[in-house]
Amino acid sequence: MMPFSHLAGTLIPAMTFLSYLRPESWEPCVEVVPNISYQCMEVNLYKIPDNIPSSAKNLDLSFNPLRHLGSHSFSNFPELRVLDLSRCEIQTIEDNAYQGLNHLFTLKLTGNPIQHLALGAFAGLSSLQKLVAVEINLTSLEDFPIGHLKTLKELNVAHNSIHSFKLPEYFSNLTNLEHLDLSNNRIQNIYHKDLQILHQIPLLSLSLDLSLNMIDFIQPGAFKGIRLHKLTLRSNFDKMNVMKTCIQALAGLEVHQLVLGEFKNERNLDRFDKSALEGLCNLTIEEFQIAYLEDFSSNDIGVFNCLANVSAVSLVDLWLNKLESLPKDFRWQSLELVNCRFEQFPALALPSLKTFVLTANRDSKTVVDFELPSLEFLDLSGNGLNFRSCCSHSDFGTTRLKYLDMSFNNIIVMGSNFLGLEQLEHLDFRSSTLKQANDFSIFLSLTKLLYLDISHTHTRVVFHGIFHGLYSLKVLKMAGNSFRDNFLPAIFTDLTNLTFLDLSHCKVEQVSQGAFDSLLRLQVINMSYNNLLLLDILPFKYLHSLQVLDYSFNHIVAPKVQKLQHLPSNLTLLNLTQNDFACVCEHQSFLQWVKDQRWLLVEVEQMMCATPLDMQGMPVLSFRNTTCQMNKIIISVSVLSVLVVSLTVVLVYKFYFHLMLLAGCKRFGGDECTYDAFVIYSSQDEDWVRNELVKNLEEGVPPFQLCLHYRDFIPGVAIAANIIQEGFHKSRKVIVVVSQHFIQSRWCIFEYEIAQTWQFLSSRAGIIFIILQKVEKSLLRQQMELYRLLNRNTYLEWEDSVLGKHIFWRRLRKALLAGKPQSPEGAADAENN
Questions:
Q1: Quick one: 356 exposed, middle or buried, by C-beta within 10 A (0-12, 13-18, 19+)?
Q2: For residues 658 and 665, what is the distance between their CA atoms, to the nearest angstrom?
Q3: What is the pLDDT of residue 15?
Q4: How far is CA 301 from its chain centroid?
Q5: What pLDDT does 767 receive?
Q6: Long-range contact list for 431-440, CB < 8 A, 24+ apart?
Q7: Confidence (pLDDT) at 809
Q8: In the sheet that 411-419 helps form, which strands lie side by side, from edge to edge?
Q9: For all residues of the chain together, what is the average pLDDT?
Q10: Mean pLDDT, residues 526-549
Q11: What are the angstrom distances between the C-alpha of 94 and each of 19, 44, 79, 139, 515?
């Protein structure tokens, strides 16, 4: 066992090493943009990492226990633009902590429990424009050392413990300050002296947010003579009389936008009294917004009397039962009504109104006509409205309309083709149900329209002239609709200026070759979420301006590489993800193309194989061509082997009996023959063989021994084996009895072919032909080889006459005697005969 002293000597250095092995040395930061942007959020860093390049411009160190920022903590990153130190448990920031960050625009210190903030903590931030110091235990603006940040535009000190609204003297240096957020602090009283600096040096563009401070008192005249861009007072009052008094105390304020009311989840007032807004008559206001007030009633039009000269009014989430006709002398140019629960559609008649927004109101279902002759912008989205006849100038009381949004409504019946609305540039029907859109060219008069959205409108495009007249259109969105037979026809002929086209979720299975021929300026087309089986490039061949093509979420197995070579020359992004790619050798040219065109393909790593099973779910990039090469060799060898074996089997099968004959010739080549001749004949000619041939040859002098199958073949042995072994192997000659029956018999022809092989192997002229009867030449030509042999060789011809028979038998005997070994007695007998 190792002695204790040795064990301690080994462990102590190791533990010392591990104590210095901090997480920051493990390179935990994520490189979002190489050499530019780094995210080190929540990786348990205890100090500023030193392994990030000095070229970094964006650095996120939030949610790390840094706790202490010493001098020149970020000197290694002189190019930083954005620094996020949110919730890093920072308690101390020393002088010159950010020294050297001359280019820093944004600094976030949200959620740090700062206990000591040195006077020179923000020194060196000569370009800082946005400082977020939310929830940092700040109790006063006086002690906040930011007076030298002359470039500061936005200061957010919300959610702190600031009690006084007094703006320090150093604010006179912050001449670029545009936004000051003091929301959710502890400010209760506002005095004239608190705003003295704004009286001395007016910040004409300052926006001030005092929301969520429970204000009890505002000194009358405190804001008199002050000009603000925006003042927000939401959830500031717990009593209606306090709200009324404080609004009156704002007298003399000149503000571009005033925001009053409460937040959805921060309600303090039980009720609303219209008299609370009477003090607005003493303010100069350009835009007014009020939100989230219970029991707000507009039945008495006097509630808006002090707002007659306001240019824009926004009413958000108010309990408005109805909106009576406003006086025509109101100068409102913009009216926004969001979720105000109207029982009936508001009937308006404001000659000056140019913008009207009515959204998220689900109580009134039917649109009534209104008279707004100056209206240019109309947003009626998200109301569930029904339009019985749309759309013409009489429906909206104007001919100047340029923007019309009717998305997320109910049923819209197209009864007119926008007569009198020829100035429209933006039209949105998204997620409403369009009716009668295929009955006529509904957009024919909209020659100035630039943007059209009919996505998810349950439109089934049948009428090819649906988009006629849209000569200026640049953006067309029609996702979620369908076409007849799921075939995309050439319906875009008039859209010669189109740059963006969305055809996703349209169930398209096939695209017409000329569907996009006229879209020469098209830059983006979305064909995702369809049922396309092929990536056909031909419809895009004229789109020389096309830059983005999205074919994701289809059923493409593998495009033909030859077609992919004709992709538009300016194409920079091609999305083929979520398709049914077949990662098989048959498509290896396409799979190799994917690897070669990584720069073009969007999220190429997410292109997955669907088949075969062993590759399912694997990236297309993981396919290897070497596998195909090996497979080709294996397949080629296998195919060649199969062909050789098959050819061998066929040859053996075809020439089996010839091989048997060859083997028999070698075996019986030296033996004496048993028979003088083996007779091949048709069974139809057996009478002649028995009565003439056998009788004259076997009973004559000298006698000849014939081999006849009906007599000499061995029972139980296959016919073919008998023919070869008993017939050819044991006979000197072969007699072939040719007749019409012979030529028509398959067995006879088979025996004749074997006889030819036998004659070739035995190297002798052993075949004797007997023409038993006249055979028609046409029938004889069916056996071309036999026909040729009979033309080239002498044969015996049977004649049924005394002289003919005498000559026939003498010639046949002579042929049989040739090569026959004979005794002297036999020779004498033959000579006498």
A1: buried
A2: 10
A3: 45
A4: 55
A5: 82
A6: 431/407, 431/455, 431/456, 431/457, 432/406, 432/407, 432/408, 432/457, 433/457, 433/458, 434/458, 434/459, 435/411, 437/463, 437/466, 438/462, 438/463, 438/466, 439/414, 439/463, 440/465
A7: 87
A8: 387-392, 411-419, 433-435
A9: 85
A10: 91
A11: 27, 22, 21, 19, 67
Q: Which two tokens stand for residue 570?
A: 């300016």
- Per-residue model confidence as pLDDT tens digits over 591-649: 889 998 889 999 999 999 999 998 999 999 998 876 676 555 566 777 777 887 777 66
700: which residues sit within 8 A by CB, 6+ positions away?
A: 809, 813, 833
Q: Sorting pLDDT into bands at 50, 70 and 90, what band is 650?
A: low
| 3-state secondary structure (DSSP) of residue 193 | helix
Backbone phi, psi, residue 501, to 5°: -140, 125
Q: Which CATH architecture has domain 656-832?
A: 3-Layer(aba) Sandwich (3.40)
Instruction: Kindly tell me the burial class for residue 380, based on how many C-beta atoms sit within 10 Å of its own C-beta (0-12, 13-18, 19 or more).
Output: buried
As a whole number of angstroms, the distance between CA 63 and CA 84 comes to 10
3-state secondary structure of 284: strand
Amino acid identity at 610: A
Task: Please provide the distance, in angstroms rounded to a whole number, between the alpha carbons at the two ends of the chain.
Answer: 125
List, in order, residues 6 or more apart from 432 with CB less than 8 Å away. Answer: 406, 407, 408, 409, 410, 411, 412, 457
d(CA 436, CA 416): 10
Q: Please give the residue that has the higher pLDDT: either 779 or 55.
A: 55
Per DSSP, helices labelled H in 368-499 are 393-396
Written as one string, the DSSP assignment of 555-596 is: ------HHHHTTS-TT--EEE--SS-EE-SGGGHHHHHHHHH
Give the whole-angstrom CA distance, residue 812 versus residue 696.
10
Q: Which two tokens stand for residue 672?
A: 């004496």
Residue 75: which residues within 8 A CB-CB, separation 6 or more? 99, 100
Tokens found for residue 98 = 């950010």
Amino acid letter for position 572: T
The helix or strand, by DSSP H or E, that contains position 133, with its residue range, turns out to be none
Residue 613: partners with Cβ closer than 8 Å, 6 or more residues away: none
Q: CA-to-CA distance for 615 and 623, rounded, in angstroms?
A: 8
Report which of 742, 714, 712, 724 is spatially closest to residue 656, judged by C-alpha positions.
Answer: 724
Report the candidate in 277, 317, 319 with the shortest Cα–Cα distance to residue 297.
319
Which residue in 282, 142, 260 sits closest to 209, CA to CA? 260
| H helix and E strand count, the chain | 18, 43
For the chain, domain boundaries: 656-832
Block residue for tokens 């039009």? 301
Pairing of strands 334-338, 312-316: parallel
**Residue 776 buriedness (CB in 10 A; 0-12 / 13-18 / 19+):** exposed
Question: Which residue's structure tokens are 């979002």?
Answer: 32
C-alpha span between 173 and 167 (Å, rounded): 12
Give the largest CA-CA distance in the chain: 170
Q: How far apart, in whole angstroms, are the C-alpha atoms of residue 103 and residue 7? A: 54
Query: Residue 299: what pLDDT?
Result: 54
The answer to whether 275 and 300 have CB atoms below 8 angstroms apart is no
Q: What are phi and psi of 160, to 5 degrees?
A: -120, -160
Q: Angle 772-775-776 (CA atoms, 0-180°, nearest 5)?
A: 175
The pLDDT assigned to 763 comes to 57
Rounded CA-CA distance 714/716 in Å is 6
Do the beta carbons of residue 468 and residue 447 sit within 8 Å?
no
